[in-house]
Amino acid sequence: MNNRFFSSLALRNIKSNKQLYIPFLLSSTAIIAMFFLMISLMTNKFVQERSATLPTLFMIGVVVIGLFAVIFVLYTNSFLIKRRKKEIGLYGILGLEKKHVAKILFFESLFSSLLSIVAGLLTGLLFGRLAFMLLNFMLRMPNDIAYSTSLVSAGATIALFMLIFGLTYLYNVSQFTFANPIKLLKGKQEGEKEPKGSFVFFILSLIFLGWGYEISITIPDPLAAIEKFFLAVLLVIIGTYLLFISGSIFILKALKNNKRIYYRPGAFISISGMLYRMKQNAVGLANICILASMVIIAVSTTITIYLGSEETLENQFPYEHNVKLFGDMDNVAEMNTRFFEVQDEVIALTEENGLDVAEMESYRFESFYGNLVDGRFVFEQSLLGEDFPIMMRAIPLEDFNGMTRENYTLEEDEALFYHSTKTYTEDGLAIGNKNYKLTEIENEFGADMDFTESIALVVPDVSHLLDIRDDFMEEFPEWNYITIDAEIGLDVEGTEEQNEQLVNRLNSEYNGSSGSLSQYRSRDIQREEWYSLNGGFLFLGIFLGLLFTIGTLLITYFKQVSEGFDDREKFQIMQKVGLDEDMIKESTRSQIVWMFLLPIVIATIHVSFAYPIVRKLLLIFGVTNDMTWLMIFIAVVIAFAAIYWMIYRVTSRVYYSIVK
Description:
The protein is an alpha+beta fold. The chain contains 22 helices and 10 strands. Helix 14 packs antiparallel against helix 19.
């Protein structure tokens, strides 16, 4: 027998199993196209030259899509080969040797992989311009990213997916190499034994989920959120699998033991059938739940970050023009003179360029690190350690009153106090040789105070800053990093051309000639890079959301088809003993709770408990509006639920057409 015979037989097999192969080929094509687009963006010369952050973001996207492609193609292929076991067994009964069967499977894999890769590359090229137009809209760059691709991108895509399809071929061959043809012939008729529910696993699922939820709820600040986010995700994923595998069995067995519920024709069929195959169902449902959680989190957070870009810019750069002065460690008191001189210089430069100062804010401050112990702020000389220390910012009352337009007064032993976590409830605080009576105030110091656990202490005058520094230096004489720094911010009124000239003057004056003792930042200068970063995040979030939605669609479809073939013979037998079509529909409809409601409900619970840790991560991007994230989160949940409902309705019709 020559290769032409085996290749034509392989083509006939693909056509005969088109109900399984068409969705597999379409999904593979979509994933290949997405990978090709992402790697084209990563290697695009314009992206690499104009943005420092986008290539890194797109590289993350390439890695995530590549890993997902490996897992997803192997997972869906396992459904295909399961349905083909009887066919493969029949080849052996008819006298074909295993090497002949391997050739048939080789040509099937070759044809399907070539078709998917070619279609994926063509789809990527076809929709490439559309994707680049969307990216240009999101990034708001002055010049559009030119659409281009390369042989390197195409070659990397072909190499990866040929490797993936090669792994599927090896897996398929392994399924019959060591198997008996008679066993393969009966393979799809062999159902799984009724699983035994494990109380230990059920308790472990609650422990893992509770542990992951507890990390999210009790996370203190964004830095801790970065450190523990992936641990929380891992714990929730493990807990989800254990919950579906063990918890679902307990529920079904409880329903089975309830005679009122179980001994009804529709419930009898649904419960007994699902319990019989619950090990497979539970894993599939857990996969859907996890993918749904990923879609909701990825899409909702990236949309929130993008829509909150202007809010972020205002939080990070409270004023249109921002000058920061760094103190001289060898002459700390010198800042008291320089602070007022620079303010006068900035006002003079503004007037020279024909602009008026609309609003101006300035203040001096001193930063320390330490911990609160028994009513005392204990200095720390290093930021390294198991726990990140508390940052304290001390500000003189004169400057604080200027910031807030208030007229507070303080005695020598009094201070105004703000604590980001609001966990310090004492009415006094000792720091160095000072003891202060505290009056609590709200945050007037910017969003960065909530980035990690922080304290703001408003002291009577600048001399207190020098005294606190002397106390620190007495305790740690070898550490000389404590200085008085200052922030100066202003908004101006005038034409865009005049404002641009002022930006250039301030940038030259305080990022150039003043060296490292000053820094100038303009909101307009930062806007381009910020939209580049946030637009890249949104583009990546939409891509990954689409990818995970495709995964959800295919898992649901193949589960329904697989279960349909498993159930068909049983329903045919029951029809012969009097079961009508309405009863079949009723029994399949009852599975909505498991196939639709349960994964969505659990995913929504996961994301709800993830809110605190996601909220802290959003602070890193300067997003402080809780309502924005909440509204977007609700909209994404509703949108994904609607999409998943449509997926279920379509796949349930496929299931019903098989079983009836």
